[in-house]
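BACKBONE GEOMETRY TOKENS
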Amino acid sequence: MKQPVAIVTGASQGIGRATAIRLAQDFEVVVISARNRENLSATAGEIEKAGAKAHLIAADLASPAAAKLLVEETIAKFERIDAVLNIAGAVPGIDLMEMTDDQWVQGAELKLHGARRVTIHAWEALKKSRGSVVFISGTAALEPKAGTAAVAVINAAINALAKGFAEKGVRDGVQVNSMLPGAILTQRRRSMLEKAAAQQQITLEAAIEQFPEKVGIARLGTPEEIANLIAYLVSPGARWLTGTAIRMDGGEVRGV
């Protein structure tokens, strides 16, 4: 039996899009949000093909009002929320010594505070449904580098935020985990590799081929692989799994 209603933020591309489409197998309704309405519409079409109803809300979750709107519209239309997948947000990979105060603030506003606001606004509905929340951070939180310091710091903050919500969730009946993807071949990763290829005067294909060896993995991951793990985290079979930061990175960060 399908679960009723999931919210997926950042669903216009990459991991968010793959997750929204994957959850169509498990939820009756997938509410999707991102800034790009055109891309959201394409995601909605794939959700419908996969067997669920899609409802799109184009919004910039860096704005406090947008998080409230997303939750209120979902409840008004569907009367419940069973899962929240906080995937929206990409932090610029700028060197620690060069990043400005404004860039730090902008980097945190969507990925960290947007996720925090959506979860807070959805909390009462999640308590009623005994629902689930997943926060997306990333493996940079575990091994910070000077060249991508903000990525690491904000990802680490998301893990800490998820732990705080998880403690409250044990009392309130809400399951909360965080998910740390490694190097995934999204459009954003492709753009980063294009820049690296230009600097090294090699082709994009060569940069993609060389990258895994440089970081110690066999290959880049796919958004669909991350989506499958996220789908498990909000499934009934994973219900006792809470307060955990789960890493999927092809072995880049070894934890054994």
Notes: The longest helix spans residues 101-129.
